[in-house]
Amino acid sequence: MSNVLIIAEAFKGQVRRASLHALGAGQQLAKRTGGALHVVLLGKGIGEAGKSLSTFGATVHVADAEALAAPLAEAHAPVVVELARAIGATWLGAAATAYGKDLTPRAAALLDAAMATEVIAFTGEGAAVLFRRPMWAGNVLADVELTTAVKAFTIRPTEFAAAAAGAAGEVKAAAVNVPTLKSRYVSFTEVKSERPELTEARVVVAGGRGTKGDFKPLEALADALSGAMGASRAAVDAGWAPNDWQVGQTGKVVAPDLYVAAGISGAIQHVAGMKGSKVIVAINKDPEAPIFQIADYGLVGDLFKILPELVAKVKANH
Ligand SMILES: Cc1cc2nc3c(=O)[nH]c(=O)nc-3n(C[C@H](O)[C@H](O)[C@H](O)COP(=O)(O)OP(=O)(O)OC[C@H]3O[C@@H](n4cnc5c(N)ncnc54)[C@H](O)[C@@H]3O)c2cc1C
């Protein structure tokens, strides 16, 4: 058996969008390996979320228990491992979210599984499936072979389509055996924003050093387009934008329908986080700025002049 087990993630009782992309990757992998697709959801009070996963042709395992209420990898990993063994999973994957990046390596270690992270595609068939992943800020793509019996991976949600509807899958309760923990969950501090979550937004308006710290014209555009805000590392390091706005190699990877980069030069480390965007609009006063090489639309000029004009046009057409 070479079954595929995808770890899904629930937040406030709902399956996260990133998990649907992980499940989409799972569907692709199951096709390539000929294995059956399984998905596990862990938490407390997640019955409805579990049921919502039953339309993708996968067997759904719901581990619903008080001991799993907090997203602690130390508590969740043994449950995933027990299930992986019980169903004969040889492929174990999750989305590369904070939860997936924390939990998957821990489960992989317990299963003696080698692991590939931030996978963007699969190649090959059967047991010889390889994991394609970017290296050096996306300048090199490596096809990685994992030679262990069980193979673990995280996927970039922006690189895989969300799961397609499939046959109705059975929903089962998973065994929950959590050992005494050495860590304790203290609290979760949520950054509250009226705007959509950066990695899930349809539109992202990002600013860099060229804003000179004034993000107001960018925020006006983001709000006119119901988008999220992003920033280059230079803007974050200068203290002009919060950390969780950073896009790039050491920030978030986004692939919205529309990405507006204003006053951003287009360094490879920034581009690594947004080049998958469907339409890229660059606003920069330097016509030689590298961002124009990847932009679909380039506006050469002062962002403080261009952005208010854009906002007025967007509002006039809404
Ligand atoms: C290991 C490592 C990891 C990194 N990770 C990241 C990362 O995750 N994300 C990231 O963004 N960077 C990252 N960086 C930093 C990256 O190399 C760049 O330094 C950074 O992206 C530059 O930010 P910027 O484009 O805002 O600034 P700059 O490169 O200084 O560009 C500013 C641009 O604004 C334009 N401009 C100025 N005034 C105006 C105006 N009025 N109107 C229009 N345009 C104007 C200029 O022409 C210029 O092109 C990383 C670097 C390293 C070494």
Describe the fold and architecture.
The structure is a single chain. With 318 residues, the chain is of the alpha/beta class. The protein has 9 helices and 17 strands. It has 2 domains: 3-173, HUPs (Rossmann fold), CATH 3.40.50.620; 198-316, Rossmann fold. The protein has helices spanning 17-33, 47-52, 73-86, 98-110, 216-224, 233-237, 268-271, 291-294, 303-316; strands at residues 3-8, 10-11, 14-15, 37-43, 59-64, 89-95, 114-119, 121-123, 130-135, 140-144, 151-155, 171-173, 203-207, 228-231, 258-262, 279-284, 297-300. Helix 5 runs parallel beside helix 9 (303-316). The longest helix has 17 residues, at 17-33. The mean pLDDT is 95. It binds flavin-adenine dinucleotide. Flavin-adenine dinucleotide is lined by residues 208-210, 232-235, 246-251, 263-265, 267, 269-270, 273, 283-286, 289, 302-304.
SSE layout and pairings?
Blueprint: E1 3-8, E2 10-11, E3 14-15, H1 17-33, E4 37-43, H2 47-52, E5 59-64, H3 73-86, E6 89-95, H4 98-110, E7 114-119, E8 121-123, E9 130-135, E10 140-144, E11 151-155, E12 171-173, E13 203-207, H5 216-224, E14 228-231, H6 233-237, E15 258-262, H7 268-271, E16 279-284, H8 291-294, E17 297-300, H9 303-316
Parallel strand pairs: 1-4, 1-6, 4-5, 5-12, 6-11, 7-11, 13-14, 13-15, 15-16, 16-17
Antiparallel strand pairs: 2-3, 8-9, 9-10
Helix pairs in contact: 3-4, 5-9
Bound molecules: flavin-adenine dinucleotide.
